[in-house]
Amino acid sequence: METIPCLILFSSLQILAFSSASPEHTLGTGSFLSVEEYEKPFLISPSNTFSFGFYETGDNAFSLSIWFTNTVEKTVVWAANSESPVNGHGSKLSFTQEGSLVLSDEKGFVVWDSKTMLGQDSRVALLDTGNLVITDSKGSVVWQSFDSPTDTLLPLQLLTKDKRLVSGYYSLYYDTDNVLRLIYNGPEISSPYWPNPSESIFDFGRTNYNSSRIGVLDNTGHFTSSDGLNIIASDSGLGINRRLTIDQDGNLKLYSLNKVEKSWIVTWEAMPQLCDIHGLCGTNSICEYSPDPRCSCLPGYEMADQENWIKGCQPMFRTNYSQVAEQVMFVEMRQVKFYGFVMGFNTSISLEDCEKLCSEKHSCLAFSYGIGEGSCYTEIQLFSGKKTPSTTMIHSTYVKLPKTANISDVKQYDLICKPNSVYEMHQDDKRWFYYYTSIAIFGGLELFFITTACLFLRSKQNIPKSVIDGYELMTEHFKKFSYRELKAATGNFREELGRGGSGVVYRGVLDKKRVVAVKRLANATEAEEEFQAEISIIGRINHVNLVRTWGFCSEGKDKLLVYDYVENESLDKHLFESIGEKRLLRWSQRFTIALGTARGLAYLHHECLEWVVHCDVKPENILLTQDFEVKIADFGLAKLSKRDFSCLQLSHMRGTVGYMAPEWALNLPINTKVDVFSYGIVLLEIVTGARISSQTSAEGEKLDLAQIVEALKQVVACGDVTRIVDAKLHGQFNHLQAMEMVKISLSCIGERTKRPTMDEITKALMACGDEDKYADCTE
Ligand SMILES: *[C@@H]1O[C@H](CO)[C@@H](O)[C@H](O)[C@H]1NC(C)=O
Ligand SMILES: *[C@@H]1O[C@H](CO)[C@@H](O)[C@H](O)[C@H]1NC(C)=O
Ligand SMILES: *[C@@H]1O[C@H](CO)[C@@H](O)[C@H](O)[C@H]1NC(C)=O
Ligand SMILES: *[C@@H]1O[C@H](CO)[C@@H](O)[C@H](O)[C@H]1NC(C)=O
Ligand SMILES: *[C@@H]1O[C@H](CO)[C@@H](O)[C@H](O)[C@H]1NC(C)=O
Ligand SMILES: *[C@@H]1O[C@H](CO)[C@@H](O)[C@H](O)[C@H]1NC(C)=O
Question: Which residues form the Protein kinase domain (predicted)?
Fold first, then answer.
């Protein structure tokens, strides 16, 4: 009974003691701030430009943030935990005795942690640049908020290759081809929209050959980037507070602070035309100016989520209706274009023929037709539709609907979601509906015109023929070959390069010069349309660490894929069959291969338009170029097999014993984590130079997974990897990198839910590979 008042007294005294002090620029260990006192910052910068502390993001929800002190509305420039805000009661920020900045929630769980552990003499400070830094006892900066930007870049903060500004589905980062881009990364589609993807980056004064990937905004309002981008604030000059922010609508803006009115002025913006921002209205909708941008669903479609345009629109009709001529109609939408991806392209054909092309394909959702040139595009995804105000071009999109659909109910909204019916329905216009009268028999599309959803060039007449790195490459036609062509190219399938679960690969030569690998698929689906839909996914995949697919052939049972030929054999040959010095991979090559493989898989898992699970990651599918760059082969094929098959049922065909995650056998859902598991095994093989599945104990017994995990844990505990690293390297390897790789593979082959993502793995490896920055990771 007596101790309780005493405790209360003690804790209120402590708060009192803390509250009486004014915010500091720098604090030592043991400092803390309770969320209840959020009105007082934890730190302010010396000139009071920035504050750091709890910021109220919503009702009773707080994030740990840095904001401009003197603006009318708090402008947050950095947040530690924006995705997981903490409760307004009981949460606490402390700079612990160990020297870590820790945010804990009301239950005492750690929500965010700087993971610095620098000991008693470390300090945390907020600088006048807006950078929150943690310094060790010697005063050197060990952690800084500038290294993990959120949606804002401040002057002097470097934007480098592994960093991105993110706001919702929108991000700004250096793409794989060294170009700084704005990219929409939605749940279904990933799509760059700035610089305008339908033009060459060189037209914008950018380049793609400087791989330093670095950008910085200086104190005068001048942003310079290694790809040649130059941004100059309209009020350039010293003495102004600025920020470069990616806004929630996906626009990138440079702001200057008006010190008198304490408000922000836009001094530069990337996207003056908001409708050019991809995904703003989601799929199956269009964006138009009237004069402010507004979204509306296509006729027959309704908003998928009334609160949120980015989710787009969904059909109000059953999508599995029988598409015979009598049941289909088309609704014309004038001057409307989509940025989706196209299944076919024809010129100089009549509107009726174009309709026919669309009606015959179940997956065709709409077609667009240009009067005059007679251009016809059949579309299987309607993304980022836009109504063009210009009247010079006569171009319409015709949406396919079942005749029974109720289109009197067209919904249209402002971007801020105010219902507003301005949809022009020309009831008297006879061309409004197009009914089918017959179905003509139509062969395969000669030009299987694929763009990534990202890149849509249909308005461009001259599609670049040259192969430039990165996204430009994807504009190349993904070609449909005839069987005869491929038979000739491979010399009647003479030279076999390899064979695997999905089929046999032959060497071929196209146009007498380009060497290709032609794979004849075993057991592929025979349904033409399904095949084309699936293959279109593969056609859209393009990454420097994935084998490029040039085209396909589909004639009845003959299904073939045409790939880039990768010169220098697969990883297994180099790891397990090296003879003396021949084929022996040096450590640095192994590390690069591990990283390249991780990057390729990360792209498949996280950046593709659809999640692609490889399902068969193994050294045989990791091909090497002459420069020992990784090209992963055989991806996307799990989906190519008969549709009813889940990845799981494909296990006999797809996975390879020794690399298959336990869940294959356990009847658990198959997701990207199976690839992470297999990657863990491959990583271990890269380190040890031996097949993990044939590892034996001292007594000559085969080791099972649990025993291998045990052995690895011991290696990690002892801190010495020497005894497991490939002896053929004669000790020529980087201990820290090897240790990191062992640790990563241990986490990959562990329990499914705890496995890291390929993105995380890529980052962890990169942290170990960047020699100048992480000098302590190399020797
Ligand atoms: C690449 O960009 C960096 C940073 O902008 C610059 O310092 C460097 O000179 C550039 N390199 C080349 C080869 O242009
Ligand atoms: C279409 O789907 C509905 C249920 O969503 C089902 O009842 C109907 O049988 C399906 N029709 C066809 C032709 O598959
Ligand atoms: C569309 O174009 C392809 C060649 O690109 C041609 O074979 C096909 O007949 C065309 N379709 C129509 C309806 O003109
Ligand atoms: C079509 O939609 C409108 C508006 O929602 C409604 O009034 C009308 O009854 C619907 N017609 C049919 C046939 O469902
Ligand atoms: C293809 O299917 C047949 C029978 O369905 C099966 O016997 C054969 O093994 C399969 N081939 C491959 C490579 O999976
Ligand atoms: C593959 O790499 C080796 C080096 O290990 C090199 O000598 C050889 O020429 C390469 N082979 C091809 C086909 O490029």
Answer: 491-775
Determine the Cα–Cα distance for residues 387 and 435; give it in Å rounded to an integer. 24
Q: How buried is residue 639: exposed, middle or buried, by Cβ count under 10 Å (0-12/13-18/19+)?
A: buried
Nearest CA to ligand 6 atom 5: 583
Helices (H), 297-421: 351-359
Number of domains in the chain: 6
Q: Model's pTM, two decimal places?
A: 0.54
Could you tell me the distance, in angstroms and rounded to a whole number, from the CA of residue 264 to the centre of ligand 6?
A: 58
Pick the residue whose CA is nearest to atom 1 on ligand 6. Answer: 568
Span 368-372, average pLDDT: 81
Q: Which residues define the annotated binding site?
A: 519
The answer to the question of residue 8 being in a domain is no
445-480 confidence digits (pLDDT tens): 111 222 222 222 222 222 232 222 222 233 344 677
List the one residue out of 370, 168, 197 whose CA is nearest residue 282.
Answer: 168
Check pocket membership of 349 for ligand 3, CB cut-off 6 A.
Answer: yes
What distance in angstroms lies between residue 596's CA and the mean position of ligand 4's atoms? 55
Same structural domain for residues 536 and 555? yes
Annotated binding-site residues for ATP read 519
Confirm whether 395 is domain-assigned.
Answer: yes
Spatial strand order in the sheet of 152-153: 152-153, 242-246, 252-258, 263-269
In tens, the pLDDT along 685-736 reads 999 999 988 777 777 777 788 888 888 898 898 888 998 999 999 989 999 9
With a 6 Å cutoff on the Cβ, whether 226 touches ligand 1 is yes
**Residue 278 resides in a domain:** no
Question: Which domain, by its residues, includes 98?
Answer: 20-145
Residues 654, 555, single domain; the answer is no
760 and 642 inside one domain? yes
Please name the residues in contact with 627: beta carbons below 8 A apart, sequence gap of 6 or more: none
pLDDT digits (tens, 9 = 90+) for 487-513: 999 999 999 888 766 788 899 998 777
Say if residue 648's pLDDT is above 60: no
Q: In this structure, which residue's CA is closest to atom 12 in ligand 6?
A: 568
* CA 406–ligand 4 middle distance (angstroms): 6
Query: Annotated active-site positions, please?
Result: 616
